[in-house]
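Quick one before lunch.
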Amino acid sequence: MTGKLTVTNCDSTMSPLTIVLAFSVAFGAAFTSACPRECPTYWTAYGDYCYRLYGSLQTWHHAEGRCRRSYPGRTPHLVSIHSSGENAFIKQLLETTHGLGNACYWIGLNELHWPGHYRWSDNSGYTTYLGWRSGEPNNAQGNPEHCVEFCKHVINAGWNDITCSIQMNFICKMPK
Ligand SMILES: [Ca+2]
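Model of the calcium ion complex:
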């Protein structure tokens, strides 16, 4: 079998590259993928990533688990935010989504492993960008606040450290 064929099964649980390699090995043919780098239904694109809000009240740990199970194969996690542009996109996403109730949503930032040293649940590294609301993080009233929420309040919108056991909606992120 020779020639150049196109892979169109873009929703397969196998990645397009996996399909290409499998067929190439089997038939010795040259394949190309026509799968566009798009986001699935209910996910919104920004740059190279897809984002989805979940209107389901969960603790931080359960929210992270829900994200991981939400789209197997693309390794979603609670959202990580690495620039002012991405932060503004998330804020706009929250403002334009109706019916989810609460004003604050879990993001992936946490200091669960080493208090005072924040990291993202997707292990994407802690960048120089910080989206803290003024006065945060503050470990309010001496309570351990090891997880972080994103609040869309008109005044003082941004990140706040808060107790991980509180239940709130959440935002997931995965590569396109
Ligand atoms: Ca706080």
